[in-house]
Structures are given as structure tokens and as C-alpha cells.
Amino acid sequence: MDEVKVVALEFLGTTGLPFPSLRNLTFRDMKGWEAWSTSNSGVVDTAFPCLKELRIECCPNLVSVSVKALPSLRVLRISGCNHEVLGNLVHVSVTTLYI
To answer: Which residues constitute the domain of residue 22?
Structure first.
């Protein structure tokens, strides 16, 4: 996955609720990844309604993250990433943060 530069709305698909039951999501060893965005006219409000844990590991070029609504997120793990990733996720409310 080293060649992936952007993960955007295409990741969510085009119909209904993209990931209605997804509880854990891990992105790991994506060396070329620079941006992740789910923002666009209401889709963001329902993209990951049940996501409890998000891990972003060893993605050193990721600097732009625009994931607005993660209502169920409790655990956020970030390691081996650019420091700007955490700044982009500062609005996310979690009970456990690992950096």
C-alpha cells in the first residue's frame, strides 16, 4: 500500500451507510499516504457510526486528516506518524489515547 497517496470519499462507496458495523480500523505501513478525508455533504455524519478503535501506525507522510464524525470512538492509537496527524484529530473525543 506504499503507493496510496489519498484516501477520500471513494473509500466510503456510493450507497447508504458505508461501514455500519465497523468497530476497529487499522491503517499500517502506508509509507506514501498523505491525506485522509471523509468530509462531504452529510456523508461524514454516518461514515463510521460504530467505530470504537482507530489505529494509524507507520504512516510517516500522513499530514492531512479530515475525519469529522466518529461518535463511538473510544481508543485512538497513533505511532510512527507525522506529528500533524494528532493535530488534525484533536477534535475527536476518546477515552484512551496512545501516541
So the answer is: 6-98
Q: Where are the beta strands (DSSP E) in the chain?
A: 6-7, 24-28, 35-37, 53-57, 64-66, 75-79, 96-98
Widest CA span in the chain:
34
Phi, psi of 56, rounded to the nearest 5 degrees: -130, 110
- 14 confidence band (pLDDT: 50, 70, 90): low
Exposure string over 73-96, b if 16+ CB within 10 A, otherwise e? beebebeebbeebbebbeebebee
Domain count for the chain: 1
Q: Do 63 and 86 meet the contact criterion of CB atoms below 8 Å apart?
A: no
Q: What tens digit of pLDDT does each residue of 59-80 get?
A: 999 998 877 667 888 999 999 9
1 within a domain of the structure (yes/no)? no
**Residue 30 pairs with which residues in a beta bridge?**
none
